[in-house]
Amino acid sequence: xxxxxxxxxxxxxxxxxxxxxxxxxxxxxxxxxxxxxxxxxxxxxxxxxxxxxxxxxxxxxxxxxxxxxxxxxxxxxxxxxxxxxxxxxxxxxxxxxxxxxxxxxxxxxxxxxxx
Length: 115
Known about the structure:
This is RidA family protein. It comes from Aeromonas cavernicola. It is a single chain. The protein is of the alpha+beta class. The protein has one domain (about 5-115): CATH 3.30.1330.40. The protein has helices at about 35-55, 75-85, and strands spanning about 5, 15-20, 20-25, 60-70, 90-95, 105-115. A six-stranded mixed β-sheet has the order 1-2-3-6-4-5, with helices on one face. A hairpin with a 2-residue loop joins β2 and β3.
């Protein structure tokens, strides 16, 4: 069985898990009182850093699950997402409205990427 690599592991979660050439990561915003634009920029920036630090990249994202506190924020989120994803590399994606774990969160993103 291939090795499972866990990075930034706590009792409750790992920041990144890599298994069999696939990276799994979830990110939330750093500033919970910020608007959807700032929170999205924070999440995408952090995701890019985590992907690149672990042998992957934005162009290697296979699947994205996007959770928005208010689905009305989808246009604002998409405007930043569309700039972030390199042309021709869009992953499979779902975007849903969800009740997030922290009241101030407006966005949470879960990615699966090739390493």
